[in-house]
Write a structure and sequence with these properties.
globular, binds tetrahydrodeoxyuridine
Length: 133
Amino acid sequence: MTKEELVELAKKEMERSYSPYSKFKVGAALLTKDGKVYLGTNIENAAFGLCLCAERNAIFGAYCNGVKKEDIKALAVIADTDGPVSPCGSCRQVMAELLNRDTPIYLANLKNDIMVTNVEELLPYSFGGESLK
Ligand code: THU
């Protein structure tokens, strides 16, 4: 699957966003090496702290179904932003632990911009569980 095709799946997933408060729809699509796709969108709640981002829903959904970091081929994220969507800090922290540091991450918008990046670039010098004694 090309990065454009994965971004397209993430774009379709934006339609499932439950975001009545922010009205900001985000879609994510995680591709595994054996060709499976796990979708995620942002789901909000009137208790704002309970809102969950598209990226984390896609990554957690994959892990809930047995996917491990070495199985992940790529992650696409898209929103209606001027430039490629910029994942929040919480999602970067989750990506740092659950994705390999060099796994391609495609950040897109509705204007066909696609930035190719990875955890190493999005969260350098990140905190990790290996620091815990
Ligand atoms: N959101 C995401 O889904 N991903 C991000 O990386 C940034 C923010 C969602 C959370 C909330 O539902 C809405 O966008 C506005 O912050």
